Amino acid sequence: MLDIKNLTIIMNKDSRELVADLSFTVNAGDKAAMIGEEGNGKSTVLKLIYSPQSVEPYCTWTGEIVTNNAVIGYLEQEMDPSDGNLSVYQYFCKYISDNDYDYSAHIKTFSELGIEPGLYYEDRPVNTLSGGEKVKIRLARILMRSPDLLLLDEPTNDLDIDTVMWLESFISECKLPILYVSHDETLLENTANKIIHLEQLRKKTRPRCTVQKTDYRSYVEARTRKFLHQEQVARSEREEYNEKMDRWRQIYSKVEHRQNTISRADPSGGRLLKKKIHSMKSMKARFEREKESFTEFPEAEEAILVSFGDDINLPASKRILDMQIDELKSGDGGRILARNVSLSVVGPERVGIIGANGSGKTTLLRIIAQELLKRTDINAAYMPQNYGDLLDPCQTPVSLLAKDGSREEITKARTFLGSMKYTHEEMTSDISDLSGGQKAKLLFLSMILRGCNVLILDEPTRNFSPLSNPVIRKVLVDYKGAIISVSHDRKFLSEVCDKVYRLTPNGLVLQDDF
Predict the structure, then answer these.
(1) End-to-end CA distance of the chain, in Å?
(2) Is the same domain home to 133 and 186?
């Protein structure tokens, strides 16, 4: 159905190879997951397959993309901003003509997605929907066109846990070929049967592509075992070589000393020593030839996030939050989303909040942020879902972190960014040019440099790769401050959070299982 042959993508801005000689196929029944660190070209590959013209402004490509005239359903990461002002009905009319509309498909798709069928006809503007509702209507629009091939770019973004679990079932049971990018490790573990791994090695100067017909967990485990074995062999070869060279140097030194001190009266002994010297030099040359064939140490693009300082500390009795909201209303103040919402956080607790899409989780977190950010007895930071709420797109990462613009602050900012594998171009380019994951890392780095002891995080792992997320979770597990977060990431909730609450119309309910 989809055949990619020798695809190479080069960035116009800096002539950097983003992808090199990538070849893979996606056939019926394939659930091909494309993974890799932030900014490695995953979204670009999907865009290129769907619409080659869409990537022309920022990259050039060579190779062959064979789709056999398939109808492609493409779920991009972000909704077209111009669609936000349309009503829901206008949105569907924009993408589905009367000739393509099928009422039975409409009812079936909406039912499977957990959407009220009547939403199709609503006059409510799309930009008033919750993030999850927006993802659902975009999925519905794609599925109603009966595609032959699905391209999904971060489909779990903004979905509640119940809908993510539906999406898992949908991907697993779907007969269509699917190529998707996801940061959700649990979803990958439960759905993927082919892995396409894009990496950028040697400070993002050499791309590497790995394609394997296997599930995600097996791929990661096999990759880890392979690299561990390769490292052990490489280390063993070098240790053995060093031992040989140490013995060689000892023997050679003795022979050389004897040659320098031998008496001229012993010409026979001198000739024997010359032969020995020649033999020792031949031995060294053989060792050097063996060295050229040594096993290389494994190259891997490792995810890195600087840790929070050990000086961050909150007393166990410190009251961080004691909130009571009689009526939690929607952002426009028009609807009551929940009543009697109460939440207490004491000391370095880690609280996770889950709930259905549109239940008011983000609205609640904004209220919490407004209260905690103005406090002077704590050092709080807020990470919203929409990074544009905090980040100036025309600012550079260096200028964001180096607040006073001093040479010392700039050097410090560059050092920290470099340690997290930002290239010089990424450090000095506009933030708008960064990927979602790079922006998220930038926000984390800002919180780390500020020494924040209370973090208010709205979907903190939503833009990180599945290979980065274990690193992010480890940093937050080791963090000694308080965390109040909204998340649908099941691994994040189970590993990082001490308590998980579900936001319901009747308030927050403590969950034993989610």
Answers:
(1) 37
(2) no
Q: 3-state SS of 386-409?
A: CHHHCCCCCCCHHHHHCCCCCHHH
Q: Which residues of 318-332 are buried (b: 16+ CB within 10 A; e: fewer)?
A: bebbeeebeebeeee
d(CA 103, CA 252): 88
Under DSSP, is residue 31 helix (H, G, I), strand (E, B) or coil? strand
Q: Work out the average pLDDT over 138-162.
A: 88
What are the residues whose beta carbons fall under 8 Å from the beta carbon of 68, sequence distance 6 or more? Answer: 1
In angstroms, the CA 183 to CA 461 distance is 8
The residue type of 497 is C
Q: Which residue has the tokens 């009547």?
A: 118
In the listed set 122, 146, 170, which residue is the last one of a domain according to the structure? 146
Kindly state whether residue 385 falls inside one of the protein's structural domains: yes
Give me the amino acid identity at 43.
S
Using CA atoms, how far residue 396 sits from 39, 95, 385, in Å, is: 16, 36, 20
pLDDT tens string 374-420: 999 999 999 998 888 888 989 999 999 988 888 888 998 998 888 77
In this structure, is residue 169 part of a structural domain?
Answer: yes
Q: Are residues 139 and 161 in the same domain?
A: no
Residue 309 covered by a domain: no
CB atoms within 10 A of CB 231: 15
Query: Do residue 342 and residue 450 come from a single domain?
Result: yes
Is residue 154 domain-shared with residue 281, that is, in the same domain?
yes
Residues 105 and 183 in one domain: no
Kindly indicate the confidence band of residue 79, based on its pLDDT and cuts at 50, 70 and 90: confident
**Number of helices (H) and strands (E), helices first, in the chain?**
15, 17
Domain boundary among the residues 242, 266, 300 is at 300
The predicted-structure confidence for 339-373, as pLDDT tens digits, reads as follows 999 999 999 999 999 998 888 999 999 999 999 99
B/e letters for 337-351, b = 16+ CB within 10 Å, e = fewer, are bbeebebebeebbbb
Within-domain flag for 13: yes
Q: How far apart are CA 360 and CA 358, in angstroms?
A: 5
Range(s) of the domain holding residue 416: 396-429
The CATH number linked to 174 is: 3.40.50.300
Q: How many domains does the chain have?
A: 4
DSSP-H helix ranges across 144-201: 161-173, 185-191
Q: Give the integer Cα–Cα distance in Å for 126 and 122.
A: 10
For residue 267, pLDDT over 80 is answered with no
Q: Are residues 102 and 58 in the same domain?
A: no
Per-chain mean pLDDT for the chain? 88
265 shares a domain with 412 = no
Q: Strand 507-510 to strand 499-504: parallel, antiparallel, or no bridges (unpaired)?
A: antiparallel
